[in-house]
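By way of example, what follows is a protein record of this kind.
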Amino acid sequence: MLTKLRIKNLKAWGEQLWDPGVALAPITLLLGPNSAGKTSLVQLPLLLKQTFESPDRTLDLNLGGQATDYVDLGSFESIIHDHQLTRELGLGLSLHAHAHAHAGRKTSIVDYAVSFVRAGAAPALQRLEVQCNGQTFAATRQGKGGYLLEAPGYAPRRVGARPDAKRAYKPERAIAFSNDALAELGPVGSEVQDLSLSVRQAIARIAYLGPLRDPPGRSYMWNGVEPGDLGKSGEHAVDALLASDNAQKRPRAGQEGGRGWLVRRVSEWLAKLGVADELRLARQGRSRHYELVVVRGGREANIMDVGFGVSQVLPILVLAYFVPPGATIIAEEPEIHLHPRAQSGLAELMVEVATARGVQFIVETHSEHLFRRMQTLIAEQQINAADCRPYFVDRSDDGRTLLTDLEVDTYGRVSNWPKHFFGDAVGETARQTRRALERLRKDTKAP
């Protein structure tokens, strides 16, 4: 599980979150007005993910631009804070690692941090640092493009009066120490290799669902292959349902799975959210094409012929059970196109999945209904207050981006409500009541 994000000079954020970081919980909610800086926080791990997964081993930072990328951030100039090209861009995260394979012992937290400077038109890796159990492994760029290594018990060779920094020590994809660097570090090389692998594995377990969902189709073809992911628009959600409905293998004892298991779980949640009673896949004759049938009030209809909410909520429901236990789901506006009852139900979905499957949620949302239900679930002790971390992102009067860690007690009460957190509901009610009374007085005096 990811436990912290760190960000420096990325878009709206300066250096205010670099040292303290942003603590993450099993469920982390990012709330606040548009264009305040929430999206930059969720883009941080996605930027690392597309960099780690890039086929180009020499790439320092993949800012996007390809259809397969999770985010497209343009150029270094477009993302650096205040467009000041001399500033250093910093990205970092912390995570729980289950075991340190080389040392044969459990580890607590692995801290990963990487920084970049502008070199030409592209970002160049300035420093890669991985820490665990008080030990630091690093590679730092020197004046002529060579990299100087740092590790416990390691003393760099010297060329004259200077430590030996080599271009061959440059890390790959901002995470992997090069083979030459590992060989130079000797016995401790395997240590840093294990730690880098832990970071890559944690990032690989991230699943992302963007704010724009794929529109429904009248029919879907089953190609016999289970998708590797659902896509950033949820475009492969139905493929995952088809794979579940056509599964042949039985799960091992105590494991999730079985034919139609995913379809049944999604149907259950559609009913809980009040969106539909059931979801079915109907094969069209003997072809490989299927129709996605929505059942509501005893009536069946193609998903194309029902309200838009079913197709829009489908990806998040499928994703919650499609990802393996221990994965991290990053979702932007999962409540889009849903009525208030269904928005509230998404809080229940996250709590159940986080508790039962160990899946972590990092969610950007504008939904008051979702947040209010989360408060109720805390009060009902269905989730501990410490396991849900809400943040409010806003701009100060002078334009600075601010992050407020909302303090929620064990009864679900927030002690530090920001001003106009979800608009001014109390003020609107007061104004409406005052205007209504004024009109009533006027109307009763009228002849």
